[in-house]
UniProtKB/TrEMBL annotation:
Pathway: Amino-acid biosynthesis; L-histidine biosynthesis; L-histidine from 5-phospho-alpha-D-ribose 1-diphosphate: step 1/9. Catalyzes the condensation of ATP and 5-phosphoribose 1-diphosphate to form N'-(5'-phosphoribosyl)-ATP (PR-ATP). Has a crucial role in the pathway because the rate of histidine biosynthesis seems to be controlled primarily by regulation of HisG enzymatic activity. Heteromultimer composed of HisG and HisZ subunits. It is found in: Cytoplasm. It comes from Lentilactobacillus farraginis DSM 18382 = JCM 14108. This is ATP phosphoribosyltransferase.
Length: 220
């Protein structure tokens, strides 16, 4: 049987998910010492590719990979035709509207909002009946209100460190974000037993890690 191809989001998601994959019984030796490599075949059952979040959906939607591990921020922002099969307890964070201390959410002038997530931002402001101008930024979004490019930002907050270190405040809490395992619809039929096993083992490892974290939090 050919290995199942899994697109894993590089960076924070990868760092949080690789220990779970290893705990679920997958050989992750290459992923743990990856250097600049992008494809990992250490476990004969799986082939991992490391890609940026939005590209996980490009690979999934094209059918070139069967499984993706990606944040719900990317799923909510982009068009995705696949099934989200498993919510992982890692990667939990939240979208917020943030700005400098002198920002007035009731300002009369049409607001300019900078974000990496124009669709989520558009939906949020449409939902509260406000017409805003949206500027798409590729990263370090926190700079925009500090430099005068925008009145405020819509971005993800995880620990809150980036906002704090840049003297920005939260003005509204939007939807929560978590990491999800997504499966290509066709692959779900073709590889059903293998995908079920992957999900069952990963879910068990995730639940165990979540319980261990809870105990650690309680003992602090
Ligand atoms: C994300 C997000 C914030 C930061 C929040 O950026 O866009 O900037 O993390 O995390 P914190 O609350 O733990 O500080 P990322 O690190 O992905 O980099 P980027 O700014 O280049 O997009």
């Amino acid at each position: 049987m050919a290995p199942i191809k899994i697109a894993l989001t590089k960076g924070r998601t990868e760092q949080q998910v690789v220990p779970l994959l290893a705990a679920s019984g997958i050989n992750c030796s290459g992923l743990r010492n990856k250097g600049r490599k992008l494809i990992f075949k250490d476990d004969p059952r799986y082939e991992f590719i490391l890609v940026k979040g939005p590209d996980v959906l490009t690979y999934l939607n094209s059918g070139t990979v069967q499984v993706g591990i990606v944040g719900s921020d990317i799923l909510d922002e982009q068009t995705n035709f696949q099934y989200a099969m498993l919510n992982l307890s890692v990667g939990k964070c939240r979208f917020v509207l943030a700005s400098t201390a002198d920002f007035n959410p009731q300002q009369q002038r049409r607001k300019i909002i900078a974000t990496k997530y124009p669709n989520i931002t558009k939906r949020y402001f449409e939902g509260i009946g406000e017409d805003v101008e949206i500027i798409k930024i590729e990263g370090s979004v926190e700079l925009a209100p500090l430099i005068g490019l925008a009145d405020a930002i819509v971005d993800i907050v995880e620990t809150g460190t980036t906002l704090r270190e840049n003297n920005l405040k939260v003005y509204a809490k939007l939807q929560p974000v978590n990491t999800k395992l997504v499966v290509n619809r066709l692959a779900l039929r073709q590889y059903q037993p293998q995908i079920k096993t992957l999900i069952k083992n990963l879910q068990a490892a995730d639940q165990q890690a979540a319980r261990a974290n809870q105990i650690e939090e309680l003992s602090k």
